Give the backbone structure.
Amino acid sequence: MQKLVGAALLSMTVLAGTAAVAQEISGEITVWDWQYNSEKWGAALKQLDAEFIAAHPGVTIKHVAQPHDTYYQLIQTANSSQSGPDVAMMHAGTFGVLNYTDVLAPLNARITPEFKASLKGWESVGGNFDANGQIYAVPGSLSGWVFYYNKQLFRDAGLDPDTPPKTYADLVAAADALKAKGIVAFGGGNSDGWGNLQYLNILFPGDFDAAQSAALATGALKYDGPEFTALNQHLVDLLKGGYFDPGYASTVHWTEGVAAFQAGQAAMIAGIASDTVSYNEFLPELGDDLGVFYAPADTVAAPYIPVSSGPVWTIPGYSKNQDAAWAYVEFITGPRGAAVQYEQAGILPINSGYTIPDTAPAFVRNMVADMQKSETFLYASSLMRQDIAFEWIRKIQDVVNGVAPLGQALGELQALQDKPQ
């Protein structure tokens, strides 16, 4: 109890100095997300709600846990009726916030230079992916794609466990060595098509720098062009090369794929920096045998790390209590919000006002340091138009299954991209 009171007093002290509370706020705000009922992240959100209410006794929060699989259908229904949440969690980029810019409140007037400087990932919430353009959400955590690997399985294959692949050629060489020893090189699953998309995300920066990646978002980079075709050929070669478990196509990436990697049944997996398919699930099982490496270089010598914001926080334009909604968003994405979400749920902070403690596992501290000192940019799947990403999932599986050649599949994808909306 004393700890909770202290935390509440700390949050009140932090909030007291912000511009968001310069005027008294009151009334009810409704908050939607898909994590409120989860064991760890949900507990963190509940604690933050309690601290916010303690600091703002005139505010009440109706926090609604919505199902992830129908989340955006519910968002669209709310938008149509102009009635729903005052604050809504969304995915970064085209998988969420940037699909709804016509109904979200622009936030530029509320964002101070100091607040903006404290956060990374603004390109993921800016119109046209412009960090300095119109902003429609606030980045909530640090997330994106990395390669996790099992150091013991690398040792078993005669590989140096402290020297993970740095290039695509290194990646193939490691996969060949693992395969020769009867070890599954790449884990995960593709029962819903998302496994292949995760591997695209982590391979993409090896062939496209940040400027070229932005061109993918604008449509200037052609899906049937030679560069994107070559990247997809690399992925198809891996998928057809005997490096994945024979059951990969029917395995659920988020559960069964995670469990197999935890159990040491695969040497590498395209995972997420934070949240699920992440170190949160792997570190307790693998301990010092868990390693991480980033996008392997191919035609780009020094690839960016494809991480940006994880889920972001938006305010719908129809909200009738936008001052209170903004105060909540500013708090949950601020240093105190970052602290509670990391300490309770292991969610990596994107706010520089909070530093992961020295008591955190060295693995986590090193990974966060890598991401803070390296160039980062939004991952490919959130740069692609949402319908294009889902169509890519179908097309690339057709290629792997021998239903269509790669050139034809990507040509059809480009034709969809060129079709007027």
